[in-house]
Design goal:
about 230 residues; mainly alpha; three-stranded parallel β-sheet; 3 strands; about 55% helix
């Protein structure tokens, strides 16, 4: 996405985990860091505290509500992208934080040619059918992993694991306008304690059911269009 916005003129480095990121930050000079707020090994706020490059701009990404923005700014973030975000929102945020003239602010998100309800996921492929299929394959993997997480956590009504599951899948479920988005939001760690065990069980079962329906639909589409 950033390559598309900058016509490939930015030098971009990706990291597979926080440890690799910290090692790179300790040995190389960077102008901008984009990081998730919630990560298994080290949260985004703690990561910012460990960064020694004081002039480094940091953009966070999160599925939390926007009311956490003041706390992120206090923690040292320059801005935050709230998932799911559009290509235009990414462009505007990058331009604001970096003051770069390389950013294309007039972004046209072409509609995908694929006739399915997941067009919002494939919009960034710009009509490239191979890219669209790869996006859908990744989406299918995310769905299946999410289903597995939920099914395991619901066995013991593990609220911590269920909150982790909700945080993980909420961005892409919101993007495809899933009917269970509100139920997912009720599972976030700031809300889940308000649910009784029965309410929790019913919500998770509904979410799993919709995710399985989506997975079957995507799988069938990929088989028919391979």
């Amino acid at each position: 996405m950033i390559i598309k916005l900058t016509d490939g003129k930015w030098r971009i480095t990706t990291c597979k985990d926080v440890k690799q990121g910290l090692n790179l930050l300790a040995t190389k000079k960077f102008n901008l860091l984009i990081t998730d707020i919630e990560m298994p090994a080290l949260g985004g706020r703690d990561l910012v505290m460990k960064i020694e490059q004081k002039d480094l701009k940091v953009i966070g990404m999160t599925a939390h509500e926007k009311d956490i923005m003041p706390s992120l700014l206090s923690a040292g973030f320059s801005a935050c992208l709230f998932k799911p975000f559009t290509l235009q929102e990414l462009a505007e945020t990058l331009s604001k934080v970096t003051s770069s003239e390389l950013i294309k602010l007039s972004v046209t998100e072409e509609e995908t040619k694929l006739p399915n309800r997941f067009s919002s996921l494939t919009a960034f492929a710009s009509g490239d059918t191979d890219a669209e299929r790869e996006i859908l394959r990744c989406f299918l993997t995310d769905l299946r992993q999410g289903i597995s997480l939920a099914e395991e956590a619901i066995k013991s009504l593990d609220r911590k694991k269920l909150s982790h599951f909700a945080h993980k899948v909420l961005p892409f479920m919101t993007m495809v306008e899933a009917s269970t988005v509100d139920k997912l939001k009720s599972l976030l760690k700031e809300n889940i304690q308000n649910l009784s065990d029965e309410e929790l069980l019913l919500s998770v079962e509904a979410i799993i059911s919709e995710m399985k329906e989506m997975a079957n639909e995507v799988d069938a589409f990929l088989v028919d269009n391979c």
